[in-house]
Design a protein that fits this description.
It is built from 32 helices and 7 strands. The protein is α+β, with helices and mostly antiparallel strands and about 575 residues long.
């Protein structure tokens, strides 16, 4: 069975299971590890029910309930942990679901490919007792594992004492009989690709057979082999995700492509990843016969100013439009006027948007035919400096899309930001709540709804402050989870900030210090790292430290009545 977390929850509900509490990492044997003794070739059933048993589903449910009650799976409150066979989490860590039985439940009839063929694990909440239910050729097995902690220790000791002869015999036994299925062979390939101990020549041979290892830093020899691989899609995948490509390899990878389309894709990926190339490579790419390549070259990081300013005179309008924003600050009056009067309307629009970063845009310019498309007007509202009458009109009379765009405009006057902070549309208020120029008190006073399942990229203005410990302390106490999530992604955080984030009420914020930050902060003082491993005493009552300002306790605020005065908000610029 496959699907995401939502589909998994629906399956559990269909089986008559009620989920208890939020999803979090249980401090017990992980599901993937718990499956191993259940599916092992040495596994023996505690109870085996023939598949031709009359009323099979009812019998299986009865057997499971008898076992679960007698060996302690069902606690006094009826809560236990469950996992169902299937790809429910993709590449993400697999987690137990904390559940209890409803009045009408049916595990054997639902938790499998078809009724009477169940495949699931049930574990006591203390992690000490397991029941695995699996369907064999003509029987359904109930495999019981008790005293799991002792079993883990015994298994580890046995593995440590295994001799080379025993290890070799195990490999020989593995390949006896029928060959492995295609799915199993593919899983082996993926596993080898992810194995850090695999030699370079083996990893090179796996190129094209598995893409799983491409996201991890690869040795130089493997990257060199991928760069000359005959499949252009593999070379493009390398450029898209591999973190260990040097500048010299990037130059050879892009310029070594004879096919124009492939060279364009690699240049695009280099621009997306903010890769810096050599001056010689820049010169070659901006002189490429393909306008698409020259246009992507205009987006490359580190492009010298002399090349940027030269590209505004490119014969192709798409190149001039692509380079306009980056080149504008370095252009003189004559060059800027030439772009504003360019024969191409696309170029004139880009120049107009840049011109009004410094010169307030009047209503007449906003309503001009150059900006008649809603998308273009949205860009102007979001990024340009607007004359006061135009900004007031959009604040009070703009449609919902325009007000959302205006709510993020860095040039907007504080009193108009305050009006939008009380906008009747929650989406507008949500944009205001993420502005960089608010104090945390002002942010907490904005009435918004927060869906913890929404994924949000780190806020750029928070990322820009990642190396500032004072700002990290202040923002770690923010009322807005997106701000705290952005703080939690910093590579280096003071131990006291890690402590607060590790006990945050938002599960996503909690997970970052407990996982990513635990690996990233090994250089911190021992007491700081120990805090990350500590289980929160109460997830809804996070402990505070005296060094951090108190966070406003709630995100949902009373919406001011129409007679309430707008809150005065700060000028653009990050508060310190």
């Amino acid at each position: 069975m496959t699907g995401g977390r939502d589909q998994f929850v629906e399956l559990l509900q269909h089986a008559g299971l009620e989920t208890v509490g939020d999803w979090h990492i249980e401090e017990v044997l992980p599901p993937r590890a718990a499956w191993r003794p259940v599916v092992s070739g040495r596994a023996k059933p505690f109870v085996a029910v023939p598949a031709d048993q009359p009323d099979l589903v009812a019998e299986l449910n009865a057997q499971w309930h008898r076992l679960a009650g007698s060996i302690g799976i069902l606690g006094e409150d009826g809560v236990f942990l469950i996992d169902v066979a299937g790809n429910w989490s993709g590449c993400a860590p697999r987690r137990w679901a904390r559940v209890k039985l409803s009045d009408e439940w049916d595990l054997a009839g639902v938790l499998g490919k078809r009724p009477g063929q169940p495949e699931f694990l049930s574990l006591s909440t203390d992690g000490n007792t397991l029941i695995g239910v699996t369907t064999e050729e003509d029987e359904v097995w109930f495999i019981v594992l008790d005293r799991i902690g002792e079993w883990q220790e015994a298994t580890a000791r046995a593995a440590a004492q295994e001799t080379a002869e025993e290890r070799e015999a195990a490999w020989v036994a593995l390949f006896r009989g029928p060959g492995p299925s295609e799915r199993l062979r593919q899983m082996w390939v993926h596993g080898l690709a992810l194995n850090p101990a695999a030699p370079d020549d083996l990893r090179s041979r796996l190129l094209g057979l598995s893409h799983h290892g491409m996201w991890r830093p690869l040795p130089t020899a493997v990257i060199e082999a991928a760069m000359v691989h005959p499949d252009p899609k593999l070379r493009q995948h390398l450029a898209e995700v591999q973190p260990n490509i040097t500048t010299d390899q990037w130059v050879r990878l892009i310029l070594g492509e004879e096919e124009s389309r492939n060279r364009w894709i690699l240049t695009l990926l280099a621009a997306e990843r903010q890769v810096e190339l050599t001056d010689a490579a820049y010169e070659q790419l901006v002189a490429d016969p393909s306008a698409r390549i020259r246009g992507e070259a205009a987006r490359l990081a580190g492009l010298p100013v002399r090349i940027l300013t030269a590209l505004v005179a490119d014969a192709e309008w798409s190149v001039r439009a692509a380079v306009c924003r980056r080149a504008w600050p370095h252009l003189g009056t004559a060059a800027r006027r030439a772009l504003l009067d360019d024969p191409s309307g696309k170029v004139r629009i880009e120049a107009l948007l840049q011109h009004h970063q410094e010169h307030p845009m009047p209503r007449s310019a906003f309503d001009t035919t150059e900006l008649d498309a809603a998308e273009l007007q949205g860009r102007a509202v979001k990024t340009c400096c607007l004359e006061r009458p135009l900004a007031e009109h959009l604040t009070h009379h703009g449609d919902q899309v325009q007000r959302c765009s205006l709510a993020g405009n860095p040039h907007l006057d504080p009193d108009l930001v305050g009006v939008l902070a009380q906008d009747p549309d929650e989406r507008v208020r949500s944009v205001v709540a993420l502005r960089a120029d608010l104090t945390e008190e002002q942010r907490a006073d904005i009435d918004i709804d927060f869906n913890p399942r929404i994924h949000h990229r780190p806020l750029d203005w928070v990322v820009a402050l990642h190396e500032d410990p004072v700002s990290m302390r202040r923002l770690a106490a923010s009322s807005h989870p997106f701000v705290r999530r952005s703080v939690a992604r910093a590579r280096h955080l003071p131990p006291d900030v890690i402590e607060v984030l590790a006990h945050d009420e938002d599960r996503v914020v909690q997970a970052l210090p407990r996982g990513i930050l635990r690996r990233r902060t090994r250089g911190h003082a021992a007491e700081g790292v120990a805090v990350v491993d500590r289980k929160p005493q109460h997830p809804r009552s996070p402990p505070r430290t005296s060094e951090l300002p108190p966070r406003r306790p709630a995100l949902l605020r009373r919406r001011p009545e129409p007679t309430d005065a707008p809150t005065g908000l700060g000028r653009p610029g990050v508060n310190s």
